[in-house]
Specification:
CATH architecture of the largest domain: Alpha-Beta Barrel
Largest sheet: 8 strands, parallel
Number of strands: 22
CATH superfamily of the largest domain: Glycosidases
Structural class: alpha/beta
Shape: globular
Number of domains: 2
Strand content: 15-25%
Radius of gyration: 28 Å
CATH class of the largest domain: Alpha Beta
Oligomer: single chain
Helix content: 10-25%
Length: 508
């Protein structure tokens, strides 16, 4: 009896204790096993900017009529006198035929002449030399044409102003520059980029005072406030240069480093072409290059680079985790010359037929065949969670991706076909919202399905980033070549900053 009494005494407190609790369902914090970001990572506006890939630069303004590249700021406004009504819509349709997705119009260069009726200065089209000049509000016309043809758009506005008496003084930024940026931002809240250049000053007219005025760009232009004010109006507008949201690639020749990280320390001036694997700041590279053999502005007698040369530039910029902004200068009639238009169209045909780039006026039946879609693809590992299958590599959805498990920094991807395919290019893309990861890979092909041969032995097959296009012959100068008859193609990811992820894989 003593034992039973003891058991009852023990059970009663526990029964009362259990009544105070209820069963609560527990949800795992990461049920899909989504990979952790590999920092730094881009802002949404930087991702949208990267997706623009290939876009135009339109240098047009006072220099088009003086023959100069840099004006002094003392040019009489009447010199700006277009020989016909400027036609930004012709600019847009011409570059769209080349496979571009947008463009930047120069609306104020270092000479300070504004191609819109600004309230900040009289050095503008308001005093142009003829009716064509006075009535053609270039930012307004350009934005309207871009929207009409579904092209991204933005403006180049020089922070340095050789004309303004305010430049170099406390009043310039608040009374001139910031107001001009706000005026331009109001021409469209969907602008993708605002381009700042020549920010540190130099010799100029400066309202008649003349001399040299130098500034510290980072401090003088009040960059944090500038970004905030532009983003308030145009939230997806990346500020290039002074704005610090994308970096100059370091040359004006249309190439990036074969190894090109989208990260740098702030500014990144010492690592422009390659970026910095240890950089703490997401600062992707943009390559600005001239399509013509003369200056940035139109010059009498200039010629257009060949479509083949422009295609090489594309491979060495867009194909190396950078963007390409290709300058196509309008002439004194306010249009792109015929030779420019013709060569741009040839370039579009090349990009379409070699890399399946969607190009205005060309349909899918003439596009390059993506052999990855018909390949049997095997991988060494698939990340657990059910959402990282190999099929994501070829589904055309940039939001889905294949990957390995945490701790696996290497992987092998093998594509095979029942019959040999003639292959020339490999395209790979990482989901950069989770950071740039891959830092070393090799490529091999097999003609018979058994014997393997190394591809691109002298090319740096290191980074991928937003997009990497590998010419399998290892040369961008021999841009197309005979290709390789392959039954298999093997990609070996040898090392990565975190578990490797790929959102897209194409073989042409």
């Amino acid at each position: 009896m003593k034992i039973k009494t003891l058991l009852i005494g023990l059970l009663i407190p526990f029964a009362g204790f259990a009544q105070e609790f209820q069963m609560v369902s527990q949800e795992l914090s990461n049920p899909d096993n989504v990979p952790a970001p590999c920092h730094p990572v881009p802002h949404k506006r930087q991702i949208l900017w990267n997706e623009t890939e290939f876009y135009a630069f339109f240098h047009y303004g006072m220099n088009t009529f003086t023959g100069n590249e840099w004006g002094h700021g003392d040019e009489d406004e009447s010199i700006y006198a277009p020989k016909a009504m400027p036609n930004p819509e012709q600019w847009i349709t011409s570059v769209k035929a080349a496979g571009m997705t947008g463009g930047i119009a120069v609306v104020k260069h270092h000479d300070g002449f504004c191609l819109w009726p600004t309230e900040t200065t009289t050095h503008s089209i308001a005093k142009a030399g003829n009716e064509y000049g006075r009535t053609a509000n270039i930012p307004e016309l350009y934005a309207a044409a871009s929207k009409k043809h579904n092209m991204k758009y933005g403006f180049y506005i020089s922070p340095w102003d050789c004309n303004s008496a305010h430049y170099g003084k406390d009043t310039y930024v608040t009374e001139v520059f910031l107001k001009q940026c706000e005026e331009l931002a109001k021409y469209g809240d969907d602008q993708f980029e605002m381009w700042f250049d020549g920010a540190n000053g130099g010799n100029g007219y400066y309202g008649g005072e003349g001399g040299t005025r130098q500034v510290d760009a980072e401090i003088y232009y009040d960059t944090p406030n500038l970004r905030a004010r532009v983003h308030q109006i145009a939230p997806n507008c990346v500020l290039w240069g002074v704005g610090g949201e994308a970096r100059w690639i370091g040359n004006e020749s249309g190439y990036a480093g074969e190894t090109n990280w989208a990260m740098t320390d702030y500014g990144g001036s010492g690592v422009r072409e390659e970026g910095d694997i240890n950089g703490w700041f997401w600062n992707p590279g943009e390559s600005d290059a001239k399509a013509t053999n003369a200056g940035w502005f139109w010059h009498q007698g200039e010629s257009m680079k060949s479509a083949e040369r422009l295609f090489q530039m594309y491979l060495e910029t867009v194909g190396r985790n950078a963007t390409l902004i290709l300058n196509c200068p309008p002439d004194q009639y306010g249009v792109l010359p015929t030779n420019t238009v013709n060569e741009l169209k040839k370039l579009g045909e090349m990009l379409h037929k070699r890399l399946a780039l969607p190009v205005d006026g060309m349909d899918e039946t003439t596009a390059a065949v993506d052999y990855a879609k018909s390949a049997n693809i095997e991988v060494s590992e698939v990340r657990t969670g059910g959402k990282y299958d190999v099929k994501n590599l070829t589904d055309g959805d940039k939001e889905t991706y294949w990957g390995t498990n945490d701790g696996s920094l290497s992987a092998t991807i093998t594509l095979s076909w029942d019959t040999p395919q003639t292959i020339r290019y490999l395209v790979m893309q990482e989901p950069i919202s989770l950071g740039q990861r891959i830092k070393d890979f090799t490529l091999e092909f097999s003609a018979d399905g058994n014997t393997w041969h190394e591809l691109c032995p002298v090319m740096q097959t290191t980074t991928v980033g937003y997009k990497r296009i590998i010419p399998l012959n290892g040369s961008t100068s021999e841009s197309y070549g005979e290709g390789y008859n392959a039954m298999k193609l093997r990609i070996k990811i040898l090392d990565s900053r975190a578990c490797p992820l790929l959102s897209n894989l194409c073989v042409y």
